[in-house]
Amino acid sequence: MVAILQQQQSGQTVAQIVREHGLSEATFYSWKSKYAGASVAELTRLKHLEEENRRLKQMFADLRLDNQAIKEILRKK
C-alpha cells in the first residue's frame, strides 16, 4: 500500500496507478485517506494491533455467550 501511494507522489497519475495494480479509484483514495504518510513499520504495527483487537473481541463474544448460557441454566433451576 505504501509503495502504491508513493507512486502518486513520484508523479504518476491516479488513473495510471489503479490500472497498473488493478485497483479502483475508490480503493486508492480510501487507502490515501487512511494511510497517507505512514511508513511500512507503522502499517505493520497497525496490522498487528488490528489482529489482536479482533482476537480480543472474539474472546469477549465467546465469554459472553458462556456467561449467558450459565445464567440461563441457573434461572431454570
TrEMBL record:
User: According to the lineage, what is the superkingdom?
Assistant: Bacteria
Signal sequence region: none
Q: Which InterPro entries match?
A: Homeodomain-like_sf, Transposase_8, Transposase_8_domain
Q: Which Gene3D superfamilies match?
A: Homeodomain-like (1.10.10.60)
* Pfam families cross-referenced by the UniProt entry: HTH_Tnp_1 (PF01527)
Q: Which GO terms describe its molecular function?
A: DNA binding; transposase activity
Q: Name one GO biological process term.
A: DNA transposition
Which PANTHER family does the entry mention?
A: LOW CALCIUM RESPONSE LOCUS PROTEIN S (PTHR33609:SF5)
**This protein's name:** Transposase
Organism of provenance = Hymenobacter coccineus
